Description:
isomerase activity; 43% helix; 2-enoyl-CoA Hydratase, Chain A, domain 1; 16 helices; single chain
Amino acid sequence: MTPTPTPASAPQDEVWSEVRGQVGFITLNRPRALNALSLAMVRALMRILLAWQSDAQVHAVAIRGSSKDGPFGAFCAGGDIRFLHQAGSQGDPQLEDFFTEEYALNHLIHNYRKPYIAFMDGIVMGGGMGISQGARLRVVTERTRMAMPETAIGLFPDVAGGYFLSRCPGHVGEWLALTGQTIGAADAIANQLADGYLRADQQAAVWDALGRQSDTDGTALADFVAARSSAADARPACARAQIDDYFSLPDATAIVTALEAARSDWASATAATLRQRSPLMLHVVLEQIRRARGMGLADELRMERGLVRHCFFLRPGRSETLEGIRALAIDKDHAPRWNPARIEDVTPAMVAPFFTSPWPAHAHPLAHLA
């Protein structure tokens, strides 16, 4: 059944919602942009979820993406980085609104009072992780391509990335955060970033059947989907022992130095990837992940909100993020001019300011998060 767009939908019906049976269904419908989140989409999602949270008819929520071929096929590729570049370059206050409201949405999903079920088919990156990692049930498919690739654009894994990556087993969180490595279903489940596997061609049937359930509570609705998912067919591919050996080292320079001194293809390839990332942000991201291990969700999101302000506005003329987006998505020369240019040239004095909040606690834009 095709969902009916609601009045709260973002422009061009980018967010569809409907209630069938006892379930609220959401479809992200911006397929040409791989469902990348705009500010309007963030606001639509927040309105819909707040309304359903107090609606006695809705016992659970399910969310999916869409592709050019219809529902499913892609979940969400992240935030709209072209908007971020334009707004950041022009000092547009909507950039601040975007991150404040997106992080509040992430917090709501992690603390949602009803089961929230994410069908994480296809691309699940950046902001897509932010609207799925807080789900009661996270379902992946053989098409899932999951990553937090922000260091490639001179940013850090936000949308509570520090929170959920730091809680991966061992030092997998540091590895995923620094490299931006893409993983599939088996690695997502093994590293506690997904709960179950469902074949892509079975999703529509489960989605539709979920709307036909009746006389049941939210937990039973989530269990209905969980019972139809399983462990991924493939074995995890990530080199867990090597990841823990290298990404437990004290700083980014030590990690890259050790990888380059090793004699394995995996180590060489990983070092080469890190050499392409923003040297400054590698050091910042490692600090973020390690601080986040001892933080609750609300405090971690407040830390991220401060990091964003530093990334876009508090290094005048030297924003690694604007430069990274320029090289990747605007000029597409894939030759970012990082400052500093080498991992070895980053000092603790360059990293420390990122973790100084731009606001007193009472005036923080996310002060209301509990």
